[in-house]
């Protein structure tokens, strides 16, 4: 199954980007039969939790994903992550690993900016106290904008002359320059539509170009802000400040190290814990609830008992979870991703005659406003499609827009129409 879109993780040194990446990819209970979690040093597989189609039809016990897993109708779908390296102020001028940072970044469809909200690391990731992490959010965006604007202005004279000479339209002219960032004509068109510019491209002022570049950055690189290290005593005041400055719908509070610790303890048999949950059960908790065997859990030493209790108080009960699972969910939300379930049989939801009992084996994530034809091209490439079936064998038109619960279970019949 295709795994795009690609989500990029960015963050300065010591912000917790590596811990966040590890917590997103360490899907110990989610891997199923997926063969790996790391693709190469920069790319990895994370797991996005969604509501599976199997729950609509009461088929949870027969849902057997080829990749990821499905537990009681809650499905973990593999999604590709990119570790974007070298983020320091001045990256667009080549500081740090600036050129690599920007080259990696252009492949991403959305970004997760991991911010050390404790304020205990400065702009370059060195230990300090009292640093204002809202500054990091501002300069990440300014680096991307400066990079795109610098590249555009370097050629603006010739771009403008050619645009006039061929009587081009702004979408085509800008897409010729923005394609290197993984843009499409649709992205450029949405950018210009939002600005509703009245002056022709050849008359754009520097201020107008700035507005275009800023709007394009928002459209091409939608960003989730993952405020990490929320359990630190200094985090609260920084969270409050950032919440007033940024769109709260794009902020997730998280503690990556807490998530990694809980998963490790659960894997070793010391606690019961479901990823993304508010609750942790220890042996003592289960005994107190009437289970004399304590659920078969191991006895913890005092150090780990105290750490679990502190983690419950400082993170789980206070914030509702470690937040890590919600980071990917929020990235999927800003991209408007829609899960689509390709099947062989749209009545039984099986994928093949040899495995007729297992249902909904595959799931692919597509971007909002994708048509049935877009899904077909993503899955089948250039293979000829005779017709497409929806639930119950009904024919589905290629121009239908897919959505959750709407034309999201499909069977593509190969052949000439």
Helix content: 25-40%
Radius of gyration: 24 Å
Number of H/I helices: 13
Briefly note the structural class of the backbone: alpha/beta
How does the overall form come out from the CA principal axes?
Answer: flat
Topology pattern, helix = H, strand = E: EHEEEHEHHHHHEHEHEEHHHEEHEE
The major beta sheet can be summarized as:
7 strands, mixed
How many strands in all? 13
Mean pLDDT: 88
Q: In angstroms, what separates the terminal alpha carbons?
A: 25 Å
Give the strand content: 15-25%
Low-confidence stretches: 27-39
GO molecular function, one term: GTP binding
Domain OBG-type G: 5-274
Protein name: P-loop containing nucleoside triphosphate hydrolase protein
Keywords: GTP-binding, Hydrolase, Nucleotide-binding
């Amino acid at each position: 199954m295709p795994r795009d879109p690609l989500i990029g993780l960015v963050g300065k040194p010591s912000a917790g980007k590596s811990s966040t990446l590890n917590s997103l990819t360490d899907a110990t209970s989610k891997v199923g039969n997926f063969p790996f979690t790391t693709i190469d040093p920069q790319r990895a597989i994370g797991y996005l939790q969604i509501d599976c189609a199997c729950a609509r039809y009461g088929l949870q016990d027969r849902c057997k994903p080829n990749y990821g897993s499905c537990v009681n109708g809650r499905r973990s779908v593999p999604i590709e992550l990119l570790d974007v390296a070298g983020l320091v102020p001045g990256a667009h001028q080549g500081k740090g690993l600036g050129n690599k940072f920007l080259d990696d970044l252009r492949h991403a469809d959305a970004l997760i900016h991991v911010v050390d909200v404790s304020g205990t690391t400065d702009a370059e990731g060195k230990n300090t106290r009292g640093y204002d992490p809202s500054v990091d959010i501002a300069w990440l965006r300014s680096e991307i904008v400066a990079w795109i604007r610098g590249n555009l202005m370097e050629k603006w004279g010739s771009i403008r002359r050619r645009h006039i000479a061929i009587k081009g339209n702004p979408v085509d002219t800008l897409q010729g320059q923005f394609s290197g960032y993984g843009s499409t004509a649709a992205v450029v068109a949405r950018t210009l539509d939002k600005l509703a510019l009245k002056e022709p491209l050849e008359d754009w002022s520097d201020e107008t170009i700035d507005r275009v570049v800023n709007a394009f950055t928002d459209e091409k690189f939608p960003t989730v802000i993952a405020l990490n290290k929320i359990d630190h005593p200094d985090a609260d005041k920084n969270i409050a400040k950032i919440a007033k400055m940024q769109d709260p719908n794009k902020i997730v509070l998280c503690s990556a190290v807490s998530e990694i610790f809980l998963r490790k303890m659960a894997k070793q048999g010391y606690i019961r814990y479901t990823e993304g949950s508010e609750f942790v059960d220890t042996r003592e908790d289960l005994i107190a609830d009437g289970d004399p065997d304590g659920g078969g859990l191991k006895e913890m030493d005092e150090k780990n008992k105290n750490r679990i209790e502190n983690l419950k108080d400082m993170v789980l009960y206070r914030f509702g979870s470690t937040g890590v699972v919600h980071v990917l969910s929020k990235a999927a939300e800003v991209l408007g991703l829609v899960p689509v379930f390709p099947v062989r049989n749209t009545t039984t939801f099986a994928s093949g005659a040899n495995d007729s009992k297992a249902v909904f084996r595959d799931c692919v994530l597509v971007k909002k406003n994708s048509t049935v034809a877009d899904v077909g091209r993503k899955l089948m490439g250039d293979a000829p499609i005779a017709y497409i079936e929806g639930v119950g064998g009904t024919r589905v038109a290629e121009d239908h827009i897919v959505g959750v619960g709407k034309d999201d279970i499909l069977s593509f019949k190969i052949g000439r129409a």
